[in-house]
Write a structure and sequence with these properties.
Order of helices and strands: HEEHHHHHHHHH
Number of strands: 2
Number of domains: 4
Helix content: over 70%
Shape: elongated
Strand content: under 5%
Oligomer: single chain
Strand order of the largest sheet: 1-2
Amino acid sequence: MENPEERKNQYQNLFLVSLELDGNIYSKVTGEFKKVSWGVGTILEQGDNFAGTHERITIFKKYLPLIAIFPLMFIVYFFIEYQSKTMLIYLVSLCFSIWTSLYIGLDASINFGLTSSKFIISPFVDIFERQIIISMVGYSLFFISVFYFDYFKSFIERMHLHQKKLVFVGIIFVFAGYSSFSAAMGSEIMKVFVILFSSFMTCRYSREIFLIQKYCSYAFNKINLKKIFLEKMILIKKLSYQNIYTHMLLEDSYILC
């Protein structure tokens, strides 16, 4: 004879499965029925989208080592003889950071929600794809700036003459990204704009900064900067004390009068 408890568990599991097939879920804690984010109907209606997403993730997983290693090999080959070791260490560290973040995003897009009934596909897939695009755009801009710097030099000098217009255009693009697409897209546009604007300004004043560091190195000394800061603080305190004494003398003279 079949155990009644076992039959009860079978009916319970069958009931939960039928709920999930209808796109619902039952919470034992609250005793409520809730809609889940996917169901069989969703899979059948959006099967092509899910298949395309899985195909893209498979391609990214296969070729991600090339995306991570090729820029690193190029940077080491190109900068090891022509640039300083500090720049080389910085660029290699940057490549490793990008490589690590991409693999973390790949792992999250594959494994997050793998055993959950609420996710048919990981919500981190879109974030990972956006990371891939941003990394490729960043590498492309870096390589273009290395090989075609002379072509962009005059353009950068002209951009310096229109800083206000450049900032205004950047603000418009940021608001357009927030309103038309999403907050994440607006945030990414803002990051790209700030980086490009900082690069323009650094490139424009790089010669002046180099000359100051070369011939006025004492100005960038931490001890001198600390000394100047302390002197200014002492001067401010003296001025504040003098103002207090002056105010007290004026009050005393007013009372005496």
